[in-house]
Every structure is written in C-alpha cells, then in structure tokens.
Amino acid sequence: MSAVVRVALVTGAARGIGAATVAALAADGWRVVAADRCADDPALAYALGTRAELDQVAASAAGQAVAVEADVRDPEALAAAVRLAEERWGGLDAAIAAAGVIAGGVPAWQVPAGQEQAVLDVDLGGVLNLARVAVPALLRRPEPRRGRFLAVASAAATRGLPMLAAYCAAKAGVAGFVRALAAELGGTGVTANAVSPGSTQTPILDESARLYGLPAAGAFAAQQPLGRLVSPAEVAAVLAFLAGDGASAMTGAVIPVDGGLALLFLEGSVEGDIHAGERLADRAALLRRLCGLEELLRGQAVHLATDGELDAGELEASGRVRPERHVGLHVERLRGAAGLGDERG
Ligand SMILES: NC(=O)c1ccc[n+]([C@@H]2O[C@H](COP(=O)([O-])OP(=O)(O)OC[C@H]3O[C@@H](n4cnc5c(N)ncnc54)[C@H](O)[C@@H]3O)[C@@H](O)[C@H]2O)c1
C-alpha cells in the first residue's frame, strides 16, 4: 500500500459491486466519494439503491468515505462529486463507474422506449459522463501520475444475450469506450480499464432473473463453469487491484471476472468442429437440473439458431449428448493444442 493517501470516486455505490468496491478501496487505505442516485427510476420496474444504504456504505468505511447523491445522467452532479474529492482530500486518483440498470425481458423492438433509454443513458452515457468530469481531475494530479479510470462492463458486452439487447449494446459501448480512452490517455500516467462481471449476486441479477422468468437468480450459476454466482466482493477485489500500483502496465483492458462464463461464450469460435448441439447439450444438461428454465433455454437455442450454429436436427441431437463427452472432447482438444498426450490411457 502506498504511503500517500489516494482518492477515488465510485458511482453506483449504495449497494452491490459499487458498495463492495468502496469497502475494498477503504480497506486498502483509499479515501472514497461514494455516489449513487439513491432513488428509484420511474422508467424501471425494480427498486434501486437507497440513501440509507449509501449512508451505511460510507459509515462502514469509518471516516474514509463520504456519501453523495448523484445521478450519472447528470454531469453537473458528477462534477460536484469530483469537486468534493478535490476539496476534501486534495485531488482524484481513481474514478470507478459502477452504476448500472437493466431492462428487457422481451425482444428489442418491444422494449418500452423509456426503459431502453434508461439503460443506454445510465449504463453507457453514465460512464462517458463520469469520464468527462473525472479525467480532467485525474490529469490535474502532478506527474508522475497514477490515475485510473475504471468501468464495470459485463459479459453481455461480448455476446448477444436475447431479451437484453439494449443492455448488451450499452455494455459493448463501455468496452469500446474504455479501449479508445486508454489510447487517448497514452503516456499521461492515467490508464483506463474495465471489468466484465459474469452473474454476480446483487439486486440487478434478481431483476435479470425476473426478466427471464426464472424462479431465482441462483439459476444463473449453472451458466458459469465455476458452478456458482460471483460475489460483489470478488469483482471489487479486481477493481481494487486495477486501481492500485500493481496494474500500472495495464490499459485498455477489459477483464472478465465471470467464473468462466466467457469460456462458454467463446466456444463457438475455438471449437469449430464440435457440434453446436453438443454445446447446447452441455448447457442444457446443467440447466435441466433446475426447474423453470424453459425461457432461458429457449433463449439460448434461439440465439444459437440465429447465429447459424444450430438447426432443427442439432436441437434434437442436443438432447442425446452427455455433458461428460463434451468435456472430454474439450480436454482432449486443449491437451492436443498444448502438445500433450492423452493422460487418460
Ligand atoms: N450483478 C451482475 O450480475 C452484473 C453482471 C455484469 C455487470 N454488472 C454491472 O455491475 C454494475 C453494478 O451493478 P450491481 O450488480 O452492483 O447492481 P445493483 O443494482 O445492486 O447496483 C447498482 C447501483 O447503481 C445505482 N444506480 C442506478 N442508476 C443510477 C444512476 N442513474 N445514477 C447513479 N446511480 C445509479 C443503483 O441505485 C444501485 O445502487 C452495473 O453496471 C451492472 O450493469 C452486474
């Protein structure tokens, strides 16, 4: 840990990943401006973080954090949060965009326009707004700088999740923005990176479950090779690392913190000769253990079909392939690529 006190601004700080990030940074000795909208959004069907939650997050940081109400769609409110950091603690070293909302549950063309706008304006616009007011503050620090702009993207940034099109668009936008920002910041000493969480145990995931008609968010665990949901603290730990000196050579990176979810997403491109139905079967066999997943499975099947990865015969075949065979093929292939023999004898 550095002897010099470092200062961060975290949006979406009232709960979930943002709240865990405030706690992780405070534990590392940072001072933190913890910002959140602290009010529900009439366009959205679920509750957002509250002032009481935000105050609790700040109180838990024992004098190292201050709570600020700021909607990330309001650049003025974000600018005031940056000013607070500079006035109270002398500058800003990290800006972390964790605020996010979700909406969908129906095909893109049926999503109410107000919901779509909220997702784009908060999940993408909010990141750009934070950069607009925070990057100049990061650059106001004297050289040599160690500034960090960090954003929370999503596994949705790299894959088309049916019924979450605007969310996917916004998160893909975040990844693109961070890469371009990193290039623009060049040798200033300020870097830009993002994390892409998989299914993480927070209220936004409960809302995702509701949108997919699932009984509970725990059902998403089956999509991740780790076999469980990610915790907010696990995502926060990576953000805290990226904020620290250990990440000084990283910029423009979008880091999965997803329990391996991206591995499944990438199978299509690295396993061209493995039957698409087997891939679906792998997921289906895992998911079938849980009840009430028809919607999710149908979504995945529709997705593979629209990608041209699945036809009707394959869909039928997928019901007959055992997951062990799929895993076996996968291991064989990996060992072959690494020049290793088959250990199974
Ligand atoms: N939980 C997951 O599975 C998951 C997966 C991938 C990415 N993410 C992303 O992680 C980030 C954090 O989400 P979370 O999982 O902690 O969800 P969450 O719903 O628990 O927390 C989101 C926080 O953002 C705040 N917020 C919403 N709109 C805001 C606005 N306009 N201005 C300021 N604050 C606002 C909410 O009040 C809430 O406190 C989001 O960007 C989300 O998209 C989450």
Give a summary of the structure in a few sentences.
The chain is an alpha/beta fold and 345 residues long.
Strand order of the largest sheet: 3-2-1-4-5-6-7
Reading the helices and strands in chain order gives EHEHEHEHEHEHHEHHHHH
**Estimated radius of gyration:** 21 Å
Range of strand content: 5-15%
Report the total helices.
Answer: 12
Bound molecules: nicotinamide-adenine-dinucleotide
The CATH C-level name of the largest domain is Alpha Beta
Determine the CATH topology of the largest domain. Rossmann fold
Contiguous uncertain segments of 5+ residues: 266-281, 283-295, 315-345
By secondary-structure content and strand pairing, the structural class works out as alpha/beta
CATH-defined superfamily of the largest domain: NAD(P)-binding Rossmann-like Domain
